[in-house]
Amino acid sequence: MRFTRRIAIVSLTLSILGFWQTTLAFPGNPVPRESEKTTAVWEENACPGGLSQTLTLGGEVKNPTTFDLQKLINLQQDLKKQDPVVVTEVTVSFQTGSGPRTETYYGVPLWEFINNEISSGGLQPGNSGQNSKNAFLRQYILAEATDCYGSVISIGEIHPNFEAKQVLIAYAKKASDGSIQYLTDTDEGFARLVVPGDKAGGRYISNLRNILVLSAPASPLKAKYFRQP
């Protein structure tokens, strides 16, 4: 009998303590739920949008660096001195939400941007998978705008020995009067991606902020990815 009474008293005491813990936590010392935790500053500012002012090159390159307009212009001039036939001007036609568009852009070839000694120091494959042959063909470029809009271009698309597509990081275009107009004077940001051959302009990323060179992970092939007989 005494034992049963003791159990009841202990249960009552624990209930009271639990009640007071809840009461003390609210409202003076609220315990935030997982969804109410404060977002880190870098997460809040991850996609601010607006006009781009600089372009950061990072990932699997030897010399990650940041470019502004003048540095991008200097790179284009240096590339021309290195190889006078390097393509720094392309005329493209592509479809936009407001209709077809044809433009002539000036800038730096994406291949030279990520792989030339005077810009990035060259590629540095980070994940060759289980077979290291032509490891650069596992690499891809993630291009991101200030609002975090992004798209991917594979190394095979722009490598001179493969598709050799003349993708450009443009900083200027030809104005209607034939003069050269810097993109800083437009709503396209200081640089944008230009992808000749694309019918739609989805990869013509304006307000370009980041160029990241990455590698596809090792193949995750498992039986569950295939239909079983």
Structure description:
The protein has 229 residues and is α+β, with helices and mostly antiparallel strands. It folds into 2 domains: 2-37; 47-215, Sulfite Oxidase, Chain A, domain 2 (Alpha-Beta Complex), CATH 3.90.420.10. It has helices spanning 2-24, 41-44, 69-82, 110-115, 155-158, and strands at residues 55-59, 65-67, 89-96, 99-109, 139-145, 150-154, 168-174, 180-182, 192-194, 208-215. A 5-stranded mixed beta sheet has the order 2-1-10-5-6. Strands 3, 4, 7, 8 and 9 form a 5-stranded antiparallel beta sheet that branches.
Brief summary of the model shown:
The protein has helices spanning 2-24, 41-44, 69-82, 110-115, 155-158; strands at residues 55-59, 65-67, 89-96, 99-109, 139-145, 150-154, 168-174, 180-182, 192-194, 208-215.
Features:
2 domains; globular; Sulfite Oxidase, Chain A, domain 2; five-stranded antiparallel sheet; 229 residues; 10 strands
What is the molecular shape? Answer: globular
Number of domains: 2
Strand percentage: 25-35%
Report the uncertain regions: 12-32
Write down how many β-strands occur, each being a DSSP E stretch of 2 or more residues: 10
Q: Roughly how much helix do the residues carry, as a percent range?
A: 10-25%
Say what the CATH topology of the largest domain is. Answer: Sulfite Oxidase, Chain A, domain 2
Please write the string of helix (H) and strand (E) elements: HHEEHEEHEEHEEEE
